């Protein structure tokens, strides 16, 4: 086990950390593009301002880690323990973030662009001032998640669990909450529990939700 290792400003491009145990390490400003972290222990690490673009982070423990201003573009982040992590102004483009445990983590001022977050438990995630463009949340658990005031464009929530989710004062353009398959009455009831007070919607999103009886009073059509 390697603890308190200092990789700050290091060139770690194309490095394999598979199976490593590197906890409480400093990866600040490190260039770790196209690196591999499979089945690794990376708890309490500081990845702030690092470049992890193109990397594969799979089935690893990264709880209590800091990804502020990190570049996660083109990354495959899957099946990891990412509890209590910080993602502030993190760059997340063309990435896969599916099937992770994000409990008690915070995404602050993050722009998600062309990101796959399917089949993921997001119930205890704190989203703050985020923007979602071409994001797929299909089959994820988003119960009680607060998306108030945030922006969504070309986003899919198909078959996601959305009970008591709120989009108050949010902006939604071409957002899908349905799939082409037959859905249960339970799913339709859950959709009706979503709060859209003061939201801005394009006609496509509005008509889709209105057609299944979702309460869209005080909605602005854009």
Describe this protein's structure.
Helix content is 7%, strand content 23%. With 222 residues, it is mostly beta strands. The chain has two domains: 1-102, 3 Solenoid (Pectate Lyase C-like); 137-222, Pectate Lyase C-like. A seven-stranded parallel β-sheet has the order 7-9-11-12-13-14-15. A three-stranded parallel β-sheet has the order 3-4-5, with no helix packed on it. The longest helix is centred in the C-terminal third of the chain and has 8 residues, at 185-192. The protein is elongated, with a radius of gyration of 18 Å. It comes from Romboutsia faecis. InterPro entries: 5peptide_repeat, PA_immunity-related. This is Pentapeptide repeat-containing protein. Pfam families: Pentapeptide, Pentapeptide_4.
Q: What is the level 1 CATH name of the largest domain? A: Mainly Beta
So what's the overall shape? Answer: elongated
Strand content: 15-25%
Mean pLDDT: 92
Structural class: mainly beta
Radius of gyration: 18 Å
Give the strand order of the largest sheet, numbering strands 1, 2, ... along the chain: 7-9-11-12-13-14-15
Structure annotation, total helices: 2
CATH topology of the largest domain: Pectate Lyase C-like
**Number of discrete domains:** 2
**CATH architecture tag of the largest domain:** 3 Solenoid
Give helix and strand order, one letter per element, not per position: EEEEEEEEEEEEEHEHE
Q: What is the CATH homology-level superfamily of the largest domain?
A: E3 ubiquitin-protein ligase SopA
Biggest sheet record: 7 strands, parallel
Which regions are unreliable across 5 or more consecutive residues at pLDDT < 50?
none
Protein name: Pentapeptide repeat-containing protein
InterPro entries: 5peptide_repeat, PA_immunity-related
